[in-house]
Amino acid sequence: MTGDPKLGLNISGDKTSGERTSGLKRPGERMYGTIKSGLRIAGLKIPGLNTNGDIVTGDKIMGTKENGERIMGHSAQGEAMRAENNHGDRINGPIIVGDDTNVESITGENIEFTLIRGWPESRRIS
């Protein structure tokens, strides 16, 4: 399966065996993964947000926010979240899926993020 380069859509893969997809969904947004088998997606889902995770279990989140803050954690079990802001401060702590968490970093910046069950994306508002 291929897309229209004029639309910035470049998708290739096997629709029957795991539906492997790679390419540009929209200009500047990259996606790579297996849609059926494990639903693993890596790439830029939102401009400036780099996400690498598993949609089915929501197990792993790795991302970079537009301002350079990094996110790593486990969303399905709600066990761990590590955030690093652009000053290099690290925030560690437990998080429950779907709960809003607001923490204050060493520099006094407030960092707020929400994990959504089954989706490899962490929304953070600072």
What does this structure look like?
Residues 1-30, 76-96 are annotated as: Disordered. Residues 81-90 have a biased composition (Basic and acidic residues). By secondary structure, the protein is mainly β. It has a domain at 57-125. Helices cover 0% and strands 47% of the residues. It contains no helices and 11 strands. It has strands spanning 20-26, 29-34, 40-46, 49-54, 61-64, 70-74, 80-84, 90-93, 100-104, 110-115, 122-125. A 4-stranded antiparallel beta sheet has the order 1-2-3-4, with no helix packed on it. A 4-stranded antiparallel beta sheet has the order 5-6-7-8, with no helix packed on it. Strands 9-10-11 form a 3-stranded antiparallel beta sheet, with no helix packed on it. The radius of gyration is 16 Å and the shape is flat. The model is unreliable at 1-71 and 73-126 (pLDDT under 50).
pLDDT average, as an integer?
Answer: 42
Helix fraction by DSSP (H/I, runs of at least 4): under 10%
Low-confidence stretches: 1-71, 73-126
Order of SSEs = EEEEEEEEEEE
Q: Supply Rg.
A: 16 Å
Topology of this protein?
Blueprint: E1 20-26, E2 29-34, E3 40-46, E4 49-54, E5 61-64, E6 70-74, E7 80-84, E8 90-93, E9 100-104, E10 110-115, E11 122-125
Antiparallel strand pairs: 1-2, 2-3, 3-4, 5-6, 6-7, 7-8, 9-10, 10-11
Question: Would you kindly provide a brief summary of this structure?
Answer:
Residues 1-30, 76-96 are annotated as: Disordered. The chain is mostly beta strands.
